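Q: Hi! First time doing this. I have a protein sequence and I read that you can turn it into a structure. Is that right? Here it is:
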Amino acid sequence: MNVREIIRNGLWEQNIVFSQILGMCPTMAVTTSGTNGLGMGLATTAVLIGSNILISSIRHFVSPQVRIPVYIVLIATLVTLVDMGLNAWMHDLYRVLGLFIALIVVNCAVLGRAEAYASRAGVLASALDGLFMGLGFTAALTVIGLIRELIGAGTLFAQASLLLGPQFAFMEMTVIPNYGGMLMMILPPAGFLVLGLLLALKRLYELRATALKNIPPAAASDTAAVGCH
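A: Yes, that's right. Below is the predicted 3D structure, encoded as structure tokens:
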């Protein structure tokens, strides 16, 4: 188990949204604000951790022919528990996210990690994989939501205390007072626009980082010397 690799893959290299382009339904639908994106991401993270642990635990007892139905039943059970928990303790967030909580069952990322990683790794490694894949997914949804919310309403984490609980009131900020808002940013096309721009920025950063790694040490020293003069 390489913990550093698990962390890097979950947060960056194999990020569910920015690298694998999975889970597009919640990414487009619930990221109208940073609060919604954070809530949806944390709910999905809980399912990812639980499903990875369960599937890793039973991987030696499930035959290959029936593994997918078994995985789906386990994931559906966990999603039902998360759905009921949100309804009981965070009812306002539950009402905002609505059907998209139940749709975690068919999120390709959850079943994909079960098949690609948890069914082949130990329980601890699978739990860490679920955690950091979920945190990467949460970060992606939150960033997209914050950008759309800032441009669309001039706020950050609006209604966090109402949706997530009073302890999250410190997150609420009004960045642009008396802002008229931009309706387009809370509509679905803005989700595609913001996601596309973030994908382009990530790709540019990776290309530049790769180019810098490929520069020979001597050439890098000469470049630094020229810069100093």
